[in-house]
Amino acid sequence: MAKKDKLLNDPCDSLSGCCAIQSVVSVDERGQMVLPKEIREKAGIKPGDKFALVTWEKDGRVCCMSLIRTEELAGMVKNILGPMMQEITK
């Protein structure tokens, strides 16, 4: 198996952690994308769910995008900033 094929087919290899290409989506004329049903079901995504869109830039262009559930993001912020704020306010 070629190295590229191994990375695409083994979502938990030592190089990529547990990331995997699950699907390819297209953008329509209105700028909308549809997440495939099987991905929505596996992720437990329901109508009305909220996500934060996080981007990374390289050479002045957005190269990566990630969706994080807002309730998960709030927990992450609390876990990171909470101890810092407690230390500052001592």
Sheet-strand content, in percent, reads: 15-25%
The coarse silhouette is extended
| CATH topology call of the largest domain | Pemi-like Protein 1, Chain: D
Q: Kindly report the average pLDDT value.
A: 82
For the biggest β-sheet, the strand order reads 1-2
Radius of gyration: 18 Å
Biggest beta sheet attributes:
2 strands, antiparallel
**Structural class label:** alpha+beta
Total individual domains: 2
CATH class descriptor of the largest domain: Mainly Beta
- SSE order, one letter for each helix or strand: HHEEH
Number of helices: 3
Please name the CATH architecture of the largest domain. Answer: Ribbon
Quaternary state of this entry equals single chain
Give the N-terminus to C-terminus distance in angstroms. Answer: 57 Å
The amount of helix comes to: 25-40%
Please tally the β strands and state the result. Answer: 2
Taking pLDDT < 50 over at least 5 consecutive residues as the criterion, the unreliable ranges are: 3-8
